[in-house]
Design goal:
The structure holds 2 protein chains of 2 kinds. Chain A is α/β, with parallel strands linked by helices. Chain A is built from 7 helices and 6 strands, in the order αβαβαβααβαβαβ. Classes of the chains: A alpha/beta, B alpha/beta. At the A-B interface, helix 3 and helix 5 of A face helix 3, helix 5 and helix 8 of B.
Chain lengths: 162, 183
């Protein structure tokens, strides 16, 4: 996804009331994170589970929170998502960069990239793949879910090689 | 001093202020001895009590936020000390009840006995204190009341055969009443 759209997504989510952006950097989400850093709204943590913990605390004061991560970090976080976020019904957006979407991505991303749609489905996380055409619609969808105390995933495909 | 005694006495000093407690026997002891709506019992997600506490502390700077952690718990999320130390929330008070073991799972050894957690906390910019017996609790609690955070208190405890009851409030209910208590 190109730079302009990533920056637009960040600003759109801020406009819709998302206050907290916590996570671990991912090159797929580089410009999204950069936009947040410029606006001093990003908190970078040591691990994705830690980010989910912090975002949980922030959600407990009633603020809309988002955790950004690569899908490797999503896989790390499965138990935290099920035994904290879903168990306590903590509203949160998980923004996940989809490594391994392209078949010839780096080998370490191949397996998780392949099983990611199934993983998301099997833990019962409602999600949407977000791109430049549907981004406004899917951001609105995610915000509406947050208002109903739901946790959702927004997925950005890694559609380039470097 | 066993954990249940330490939890009871320290929570009494904290009064009605928020506590986020780690999974396992920690939350069970807090629930049995000092149950209140401003306790967030984290029954799963081992390691994350300090992170949840940090999130609340950053957003409620006027409230003192207390974390009841275990040695095994903090070793699962040592990075949390780095994040807290770099953000320096003045209102965060982190207790680590250290029995050098994983008591909730049967008392297996924990490597906190081989290293110095307090020094790690010093290095990550916490103000650190130690409680080694019952008589020190009041004095240390008084001291930290006047101090600005982040504060870390190592509480030395022994294992015991006492087992507190399970937290029998549903997790969504734990959340809802905790949220109300913060308002």
């Amino acid at each position: 996804m190109n730079e302009k759209v990533q920056r637009e997504i960040f600003n759109l989510l801020v406009k819709k009331g998302v206050k907290n952006f916590v996570g671990v950097p991912d090159s797929t989400l580089k410009y999204f994170i950069d936009e947040g850093l410029k606006k001093e709204k990003i908190l970078i943590t040591t691990r994705e589970e830690e980010a989910i913990g912090i975002a949980t605390g922030m959600s407990l004061v009633g603020e809309k929170s988002l955790v950004f991560m690569q899908n490797a970090g999503f896989a790390n976080s499965l138990s935290t998502i099920t035994s904290l976020v879903q168990l306590y019904q903590i509203p949160m957006i998980l923004l996940i960069g989809w490594r391994g979407f392209l078949k010839n991505d780096a080998p370490e991303h191949e397996k998780i990239g392949k099983i990611q749609p199934e993983l998301i489905k099997i833990i019962g996380l409602e999600s949407r793949i977000i791109d430049e055409k549907n981004m406004e619609k899917n951001c609105n969808w995610a915000i509406n879910k947050l208002k109903k105390e739901k946790t959702v995933g927004l997925i950005i495909k890694r559609d380039f090689l470097d | 001093m066993i954990r249940k005694e330490a939890v009871q006495l320290i929570a009494k000093e904290i009064g009605n202020q928020p506590i986020i407690s780690a999974n396992g026997f920690m939350s069970r002891d807090l629930y049995e001895t000092n149950e209140k709506k401003s306790n967030f019992y984290m029954i799963g997600s081992m390691g994350l009590a300090s992170s949840i506490g940090l999130g609340v502390a950053l957003k409620k700077p006027k409230k003192k936020i207390h974390i009841f952690d275990g040695d095994g718990n903090i070793l699962m999320n040592l990075g949390s000390l780095v994040t807290i130390g770099s953000l320096k929330p003045k209102n965060l008070i982190h207790f680590i009840f250290d029995n050098n073991s994983h008591e909730s799972t049967g008392g297996q050894p924990c490597n906190s006995s081989q290293i110095e957690l307090k020094k790690i906390a010093d290095a990550t910019k916490f103000k650190t204190y130690k409680i080694t017996n019952k008589n020190e609790i009041k004095k240390i609690m008084l001291k930290i009341k006047k101090e600005t955070g982040p504060i870390l208190v190592m509480v030395k405890i022994n294992n015991s055969k006492t087992k507190s009851i399970r937290v029998d409030i549903t997790p969504p209910n734990i959340k809802t009443r905790f949220m109300k208590s913060l308002k």
